[in-house]
Amino acid sequence: MKPEKYAKKILDDLELDNAPIPVEEIAAHLGAQLSYEPFQGKGELSGMLLRDKDRAVIGVNSAHPSVRQRFSVAHEIGHLVMHEGAMFVDQTVRFNRDGKSSLAIDPQEIEANQFAAELLMPGNLVKAAVQKRTSKKPNIPQRVLIADLAKEFQVSEQAMEFRLINLGII
Description:
There is one protein chain. This protein is of the alpha+beta class. It has seven helices and four strands. The chain has a four-stranded mixed sheet, covered by helices on one side. Helix 2 (23-29) packs parallel to helix 3 and helix 3 crosses helix 4 (107-120). The model is unreliable at 93-102 (pLDDT under 50).
């Protein structure tokens, strides 16, 4: 099953159809405990998933902005529902395409990012929000649209821009 389908199934099962998506509630529903702590190091570590047969813990870097933390939780939920393994440690996702860390060549990391994007910014909700804004203001500047949507979905402007590109909207 594709990552987007996993995310859609969770959203449907929990009847979540309004932004912002409550990722903390989703984690709790899936039996994952959230732990927010400032991680050691240069701040590159954004999240981790630790699990055994009895429990799952999602660790989130509390030093990161709240929108980054939400993406980290969603990303780790993706690992939880899609991938086998006891531990996943994730570096900060970079949405620009000029750094080695942004190459995203690990298939499980790519899938977890796709899952997180669909969970936090469901395609149908993003498209409806874009339609609502552009019907009221057809010439809305792209930067304003991205900023408004990022605020509504409680994600970073970079994440929203990337999502709009992937949905073919911009």
